[in-house]
């Protein structure tokens, strides 16, 4: 990868106002370019919902924000700090793995399949990272973990193992775990897609509450009613590009692009 392609122009960085600034991001897997120049800003406390067909690059985009994927071009900054790079003098240096891990603690991510540690209780799942990644005391991490489990409605299941919890409960534990590091932003990748229909709402309600409380969120979902409720901005992606973006009202009521209209006519 050419580092030069990731060097932001001074004018671009000075114009930075969003909490998340994604600028002309490109990403290929082999010969296939799956992100073809994505530019997106999420304001502090804002909620961006990304929708689009399978394979359009939604997960890859989320993963670049978290530096789980390196970009091939463009750059991303979170709260004014470049993801994956450090500016020293006039030059850009790739962060070392240790610093990438540290940077990642500022970004919470919730996946489709919960990804809880199976041999840890709910509370241990939530309290582990603050001890390991942030050097908090075990007692403090447990106290805060219980608070967070309470916030997602699971204080009474603190000692349950993931296999003893429903999918909806596991996903709520995963959300509490993501919150435990006090991230600047939370990323959700289809958080309800693996759930039985009757369990979807208990998870969406927790995310709604986070949205109301001013947490900055980027959410990939196929739940269009929910998107309409919580989004400040709805982003429609297709084939590695943002085809259209706007308020829920604009995008759902009067989409301008044929591809957006065609997508919504299939999903709603
Ligand atoms: P979405 O989340 O919108 O369904 P993805 O970001 O998962 O889309 O995938 C976009 C495209 O990139 C797809 O064609 C997918 O097959 C491809 N892709 C994703 N991850 C990889 C990978 N690690 N290696 C190769 N191809 C990948
Ligand atoms: Mg995906």
Q: What separation lies between the terminal Cα atoms? A: 40 Å
Radius of gyration using CA atoms only: 19 Å
What percent strand?
A: 25-35%
Overall pLDDT score: 92
Structural class: alpha/beta
String of helices and strands: HEEEHEEEEHEHHHEHEHEEHH
Total count of helical runs of at least 4 residues: 10
- Helix percent reads 25-40%
Name the poorly predicted regions.
1-6
Gross morphology: globular
Work out the oligomeric state of the chains in this entry.
Answer: single chain
Number of strands: 12
Largest sheet: 6 strands, mixed
Small-molecule components bound = adenosine-5'-diphosphate, magnesium ion
Strand line-up in the sheet with most strands? 8-9-10-3-11-12
How would you describe this protein?
This protein is α/β, with parallel strands linked by helices. 37% of the residues lie in helices and 25% in strands. The protein has helices at residues 10-14, 58-65, 97-104, 122-134, 138-151, 167-179, 197-212, 224-230, 248-253, 258-267, and strands at 20-29, 32-42, 47-51, 73-78, 81-82, 85-88, 91-94, 107-110, 185-189, 217-220, 233-238, 241-246. Bound molecules: adenosine-5'-diphosphate and magnesium ion. The site of adenosine-5'-diphosphate has 10 residues, from helix 2. Magnesium ion binds at residues 58-59, 189.
């Amino acid at each position: 990868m050419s580092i030069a392609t990731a060097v932001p122009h001074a004018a671009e960085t000075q114009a930075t106002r969003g909490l998340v600034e994604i600028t002309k991001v490109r990403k290929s897997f082999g010969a296939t370019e799956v992100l073809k120049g994505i530019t997106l800003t999420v304001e502090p406390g804002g909620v961006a919902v990304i929708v689009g067909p399978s394979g359009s690059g939604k997960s890859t985009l989320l993963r670049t924000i978290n530096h789980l994927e390196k970009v091939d071009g463009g750059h991303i900054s979170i709260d004014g700090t470049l993801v994956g790079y450090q500016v020293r003098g006039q030059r850009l240096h790739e962060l070392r793995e240790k610093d990438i891990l540290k940077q990642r603690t500022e970004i919470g991510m919730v996946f489709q399949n919960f990804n809880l540690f199976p041999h840890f209780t709910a509370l241990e799942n939530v309290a582990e990272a603050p001890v390991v990644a942030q050097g908090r005391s075990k007692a403090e991490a447990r106290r805060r973990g219980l608070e967070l489990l309470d916030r997602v409605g699971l204080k009474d299941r603190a000692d349950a193992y993931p296999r003893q919890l429903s999918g909806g409960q596991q996903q709520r534990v995963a959300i509490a775990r993501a919150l435990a590091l006090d991230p600047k932003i939370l990323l959700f990748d289809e958080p309800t897609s693996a759930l039985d229909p009757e369990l979807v709402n208990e998870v969406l309600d927790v995310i709604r509450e986070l949205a109301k409380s001013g947490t900055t969120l980027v959410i990939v979902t196929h739940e269009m009613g929910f998107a309409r409720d919580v989004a400040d901005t709805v982003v429609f992606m297709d084939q590695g590009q943002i085809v259209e973006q706007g308020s829920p009202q604009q995008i759902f009521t009067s989409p301008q692009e044929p591809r957006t209209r065609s997508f919504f006519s299939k999903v709603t």
